[in-house]
Amino acid sequence: MDIPSNYDLLHAEGSTTPIKGWVRGVPLEDQAHRQLQNIAALPFVGPWVAVMPDVHLGKGATVGSVVPTRGAIIPAAVGVDIGCGMAAVRTTLRASDLPDNLAQLRGSIERSVPVGNGPGGNHRRVPDSIGTRLAQSGLAERLEAIRCKHPRIRPDKVDAQAGTLGGGNHFIEICLDESDAVWVMLHSGSRGTGNLVGTYFIEQARRQLEKRVLGFHLPDKDLAFFIEGEPMFADYVEAVSWAQDYARTNREAMMARVLHEMHHRLPKFRLDRLAVNCHHNYVQREQHGGESLLVTRKGAVSARDGELGIIPGSMGTCSYIVRGKGNADSFHSCSHGAGRVMSRTAARQAITLKQHREATAHVECRKDAGVIDESPAAYKSIDAVMAAQTDLVEVLHTLRQVVCIKG
């Protein structure tokens, strides 16, 4: 079924490749627009670039963009948090089942799931359940095969970081929907090993670039690429597939540990059949318009007809469980969140602790200066972002968080 589209054609200077943007009512910074123009100018990008309403400047490629390529792949467009994404599950608990003191629940989850970057964000002793999950997944053997060809990709963090949150915009939340049902929602990716994979192959792409004779202008070295048929292209596809699978396993392991803590501290409950686990930083081969394309979603979620997805807001704002409408103009995609409106540095300079505490007064979460750059004011209005993509998804559930855990 054809879906009427609500996009605008953005100016694509120096390129014949269109840029379709779902940006009505949301800000699009000039730097991000120029970055999109640089991407669209590459001869292997197309038939068009799709821009989601949470769009903002990124490294290499714009966050909130869908970049299809023919016969080439851009590692920096995928980024270094390969497979980063969301997971959510609905429980049979109700709001009335939650304790008055949510700080104790938050504390128990933080003790069970390591949070933050650095050694403190790793497992000191890998739980047996996570070790078993990794052993059964075959991820260790696949990584060893990759490492044999690329020894700089070390496996030393894989066990210690499976089932851990990380820092930045990663989070674990306890939420309530419009019927006061309790949900668990979390956001994380492939952690340190995925970062190592991404960083290594971005560097290799730049080295390849130095040897290439191009018949076109490459405006940004972060758009360095591999060409299909090259050994490094196949190696990157293998490695990025591993990182995406590891990221999904990481979310599954974290979710299991969060639910384990809830089972210990809350009334008996079951899991509802409604659960979602979706990437929003990844690349995969897809068929669009009868053509085989490599589709990179840099801060975008697959939204095929009937497919479930998650669009989180920010600390203190609503999040959404959505169902895709299968809009072909967006390459069957939607936004991955609200999208930053301030850089982290700008947010730390502009937002006061008082403002942050007021904006998150209804949430059990960190109220200190260490999370100022994640405060709601650092992000676009999630209401405006959702209004700009009504032709991409329908909202199934609106979630409001009561507990938010940040690294």
Automatic annotation (TrEMBL):
<feature type="binding site">
    <location>
        <begin position="280"/>
        <end position="281"/>
    </location>
    <ligand>
        <name>GMP</name>
    </ligand>
</feature>
<dbReference type="GO" id="GO:0030145">
    <property type="term" value="F:manganese ion binding"/>
</dbReference>
<feature type="active site" description="GMP-histidine intermediate">
    <location>
        <position position="336"/>
    </location>
</feature>
<feature type="binding site">
    <location>
        <begin position="312"/>
        <end position="315"/>
    </location>
    <ligand>
        <name>GMP</name>
    </ligand>
</feature>
<feature type="binding site">
    <location>
        <position position="319"/>
    </location>
    <ligand>
        <name>GMP</name>
    </ligand>
</feature>
<feature type="binding site">
    <location>
        <position position="280"/>
    </location>
    <ligand>
        <name>Mn(2+) 2</name>
    </ligand>
</feature>
<feature type="binding site">
    <location>
        <position position="81"/>
    </location>
    <ligand>
        <name>Mn(2+) 1</name>
    </ligand>
</feature>
<feature type="binding site">
    <location>
        <position position="187"/>
    </location>
    <ligand>
        <name>Mn(2+) 2</name>
    </ligand>
</feature>
<keyword id="KW-0436">Ligase</keyword>
<feature type="binding site">
    <location>
        <begin position="169"/>
        <end position="173"/>
    </location>
    <ligand>
        <name>GMP</name>
    </ligand>
</feature>
<keyword id="KW-0692">RNA repair</keyword>
<dbReference type="InterPro" id="IPR001233">
    <property type="entry name" value="RtcB"/>
</dbReference>
<keyword id="KW-0547">Nucleotide-binding</keyword>
<dbReference type="InterPro" id="IPR036025">
    <property type="entry name" value="RtcB-like_sf"/>
</dbReference>
<dbReference type="GO" id="GO:0003909">
    <property type="term" value="F:DNA ligase activity"/>
</dbReference>
<feature type="binding site">
    <location>
        <begin position="336"/>
        <end position="339"/>
    </location>
    <ligand>
        <name>GMP</name>
    </ligand>
</feature>
<dbReference type="GO" id="GO:0005525">
    <property type="term" value="F:GTP binding"/>
</dbReference>
<dbReference type="InterPro" id="IPR052915">
    <property type="entry name" value="RtcB-like"/>
</dbReference>
<feature type="binding site">
    <location>
        <position position="170"/>
    </location>
    <ligand>
        <name>Mn(2+) 1</name>
    </ligand>
</feature>
<dbReference type="Pfam" id="PF01139">
    <property type="entry name" value="RtcB"/>
</dbReference>
<keyword id="KW-0342">GTP-binding</keyword>
<keyword id="KW-0464">Manganese</keyword>
<feature type="binding site">
    <location>
        <position position="406"/>
    </location>
    <ligand>
        <name>GMP</name>
    </ligand>
</feature>
<dbReference type="GO" id="GO:0006396">
    <property type="term" value="P:RNA processing"/>
</dbReference>
<protein>
    <recommendedName>
        <fullName>3'-phosphate/5'-hydroxy nucleic acid ligase</fullName>
        <ecNumber>6.5.1.8</ecNumber>
    </recommendedName>
</protein>
<dbReference type="GO" id="GO:0042245">
    <property type="term" value="P:RNA repair"/>
</dbReference>
<dbReference type="GO" id="GO:0170057">
    <property type="term" value="F:RNA ligase (GTP) activity"/>
</dbReference>
<keyword id="KW-0479">Metal-binding</keyword>
<dbReference type="GO" id="GO:0006281">
    <property type="term" value="P:DNA repair"/>
</dbReference>
